[in-house]
Design brief:
Distance between the termini: 79 Å
Number of domains: 2
CATH superfamily of the largest domain: Alpha/Beta hydrolase fold, catalytic domain
Number of helices: 13
Radius of gyration: 27 Å
CATH architecture of the largest domain: 3-Layer(aba) Sandwich
Strand content: 15-25%
CATH topology of the largest domain: Rossmann fold
Number of strands: 9
Helix content: 40-55%
Structural class: alpha/beta
Order of helices and strands: HEHEEEHEHEHEHHHHHHEHEH
Length: about 400
């Protein structure tokens, strides 16, 4: 007979405890396994359905642009407005918005982030999806072809319409577009209607071309582990801001008021964002200085842009003495780097708004750095007429790089 000692008691207690645990857990085999709580979104705030369009309705919109586009329509679409967290030019956290267009298909599809061109009023923002606006026409068409379309409003439109739009500001155009993509990624994880194949493409024309180049650079340098970026298509962007600014202050140009308003917008934006805070009289001659101080970019300028500038400003800029403004412009150059993914540039060689040398300079610089980049020149194309070549070329380019 075994002598009952403390050691024996401890041994029997341990065996009993183990068997109790085994019995307890064997009785719970029919219970569900613990599930991790859903991960909280870091960027996405809200999503709301804007509209749904059938294949026939999209085809009708496409036909209004060109009867040749009807044949490209494959699916209906569902359009959401999403709001998300991003940062303003001063680093403050704000809420921005954009449109997310989903094709009605069971196939796994890729995503295109489309950066819109210049708009002057909030009604044209993608998240408003106004008839005739870029998102409601080209966005709907590309969505119906079988792509998820992420269409950021940028800062200054949609949910952030009370803030000034940072026109042609590289860093904030890129960050607002990237954070839109992050929010779209969170949205897609929370739904089952559309399957994303994880492939991403980026595209844009005019300001959108510049924003796309800026976004591509930011993704490749700061967020390459987050997205499977496959290709980039940039149309008629002002990538060489330094050369552009020197050209318009030293060269007799068109005198088109609507074009001059955009040059003025860039100048005033950089003055504000980089806290130069100079009076209009520093840059402009009278009577333009007073008008610009009063009404800003709505000032009509029906003459060559260089003729309204003070000679002292032009001289200091040319000589490099205006270090603040020179640095502000240079901070927005986006041509001198090596893209990692196939990149196409489109530009009309008769573009009087965003001059052709911008794409030419980007192409030659990137090519010399070893990038896989192509420049598609539209002979005789101006800023508007070259758009159709860009759209059709971009579609085929993305198909070829799948």
């Amino acid at each position: 007979m075994q002598k009952f000692t403390l050691a024996v008691f401890q041994k029997r207690y341990t065996i009993l405890f183990v068997w109790s645990l085994l019995l307890l857990y064997s009785c719970k085999d029919d219970q569900p396994n613990p599930v991790d709580p859903p991960q909280e979104n870091q960027y996405l705030e809200e999503s709301n359905v804007i509209t749904e369009l059938t294949k026939e309705q999209v085809a009708e919109k496409a036909g209004a642009l060109s009867p040749l586009l009807i044949g490209y329509v494959k699916n209906g679409i569902k359009v959401y407005k999403i709001t998300y967290k991003t940062k303003n030019t001063d680093g403050a956290e704000i809420t921005a918005s954009g449109a997310l267009i989903l094709p009605a298909t069971t196939d796994a599809v890729s995503m295109i982030s489309v950066q819109h061109g210049t708009i002057r009023d909030d009604s044209s923002a993608p998240s408003n999806f106004k008839d005739g606006a870029e998102a409601a026409s080209f966005g709907a068409l590309f969505g119906s072809m079988g792509y998820i379309i992420a269409y950021p409003d940028y800062i200054g439109y949609g949910a952030s319409k009370d803030l000034p739009h940072p026109y042609e500001h590289r860093a904030s155009l890129a960050s607002a577009s990237l954070d839109m993509l992050r929010a779209a990624k969170e949205f897609l994880k929370g739904q089952t209607a559309v399957k994303w194949d994880e492939k991403l493409y980026v595209a844009g024309y005019s300001e959108g071309g510049y924003a796309t180049m800026s976004l591509q650079k930011m993704i490749e340098e700061e967020a390459s582990s987050e997205f499977n970026l496959r290709a980039s298509s940039c149309g008629a962007g002002a990538y060489d801001k330094t050369a552009f600014m020197k050209y318009v202050i030293n060269t007799k140009t068109h005198g088109v008021a609507s074009y001059n308003a955009l040059y003025l917008w860039v100048l005033l934006t950089y003055d504000r964002i980089y806290k130069l805070n100079r009076p209009a009289s520093y840059y402009f001659k009278e009577p333009f200085a007073k008008s610009i101080a009063d009404v800003g970019i709505s000032t009509p300028i029906n003459q060559s842009f260089d003729s309204i500038l003070n000679d002292s400003f032009k001289k200091d800029l040319n000589d490099g003495k205006d270090e603040g403004f020179v640095a502000a412009i240079a901070d927005n150059d986006v041509y001198n780097w090596k893209p990692k993914v196939p990149t196409q540039l489109y530009h009309g060689d008769a573009d009087k708004l965003v001059f052709y040398f911008n794409s030419e300079k980007a192409y030659t610089t990137m090519k010399a750095l070893g990038a896989n980049v192509q420049l598609i020149t539209v002979p005789g194309g101006d800023h508007s007429s070259s758009l159709s070549v860009f759209l059709l070329g971009t579609r085929q380019f993305f198909i070829d790089t799948k």
